[in-house]
Amino acid sequence: MPRYFSNRQINYAAWDACVAASEQRLVYALSWYLDVVSPGWAGLVEEQDGQYVAVMPLPIKQQFGIHYLAQPLFCQQLGFFAITNAVQPKQFVAAIKRHFSLISKYTFNTSNTFLLNPEEKSDLHVYQHYTHHLNLNQSYEAIYQNYSRDRKLNLKRSQKAGLIIRESTDIEILIRLFKEDAATRIRGGVSEAAYGQLQQLYQVLAAKGLATLLYTQTSAGEIDAGCLFVTYGQKIIYLFNAASIAGRSRNGRSLMLDYMIQKYAGQPYIFDFESPADISSIIRVYQGFGAEPAPFYTITQNNLPVPLKFLKKARQFLYLKVIANFTAKPSS
């Protein structure tokens, strides 16, 4: 039976050992990652003989004295992680329903699809979404053959533009590119706190050797696009990107995606495009690389008293719109 642990009660070493050894292993669920994206996070833990055998991260926020769950930025999936089949995973879902009257948004990982069914009657509202995965455990030539005609044409255009890919450790350039273009199209804008969180997250990822930050540069020395990738546990996550207005037409992001695919082709990795929810133009780009849809579920719940319920619904709507826009990766 899982128990609720506050942040200070969690044994970080035991937590990370469980996540790392689990079949569902994801960088988002590691303690140091959660410390950045959701300070003060809690967890559900099942122990056997002092060992954590199953965990579920709980990104907690507080407002009006109410503790609730809200999916953090830069953290597409969380959910259930276990090192044994002896654990009853649905007990974890039942536990979060008991502990939280309000779940603004909580997202399970792509290995947790057996846990939830949108058709089942429940207090929870369950929504199915898709990210896109590309299996890299094949030759680059075989992968390239599955690129769409548009993707191949865009790659040729970026090559004709004379773009050069270079690796960097300067996350400020990526943030500047985002501020100058994508952020101006986000209703309500983007808080400086979000940029600060991205800076901090990059520094931690880079220190652990898990981040690859790439930029494309023109022959005149202008940096026109950037992409941040995270490699952990046989998965490469396309975490964040941006391009200048001119850079969008030069398809630098497609060039960098192709570069990473070439680099890891023939190895047992899954490339996760971390697709934004239901933005068809971006999804078509990722499918153009031969990526296949991988389903995952998001849950919400609002069992607050009626006056608070309506207030939270309004705030939740605004929050989800900002999250969707900020995390959407523009097509390239």
Topology, element by element:
Layout: E1 3-5, H1 12-21, H2 31-37, E2 42-48, E3 51-58, E4 60-63, E5 66-70, E6 81-82, H3 90-99, E7 102-107, E8 125-135, H4 140-145, H5 149-160, E9 164-168, H6 171-180, H7 192-207, E10 211-217, E11 223-232, E12 235-243, H8 245-250, H9 252-264, E13 270-272, H10 280-287, E14 292-302, H11 306-327
Parallel strand pairs: 5-7, 12-13
Antiparallel strand pairs: 1-2, 2-3, 3-6, 4-5, 7-14, 8-13, 8-14, 9-10, 10-11, 11-12
Overview of this structure, please?
The protein contains eleven helices and 14 strands. The protein is α+β, with helices and mostly antiparallel strands and 332 residues long. The chain folds into two domains: 3-128 and 296-327, Aminopeptidase, CATH 3.40.630; 133-293, Aminopeptidase. It has a ten-stranded mixed sheet, sandwiched between helices. It has a four-stranded antiparallel sheet with strand order 1-2-3-6. β4 and β5 form a beta hairpin. α2 runs antiparallel to α7 (192-207). This is GNAT family N-acetyltransferase.
Which terms would index this structure?
332 residues, Aminopeptidase, 36% helix, globular, GNAT family N-acetyltransferase, PG_Glycine_Bridge_Synth, 2 domains, transferase, 11 helices
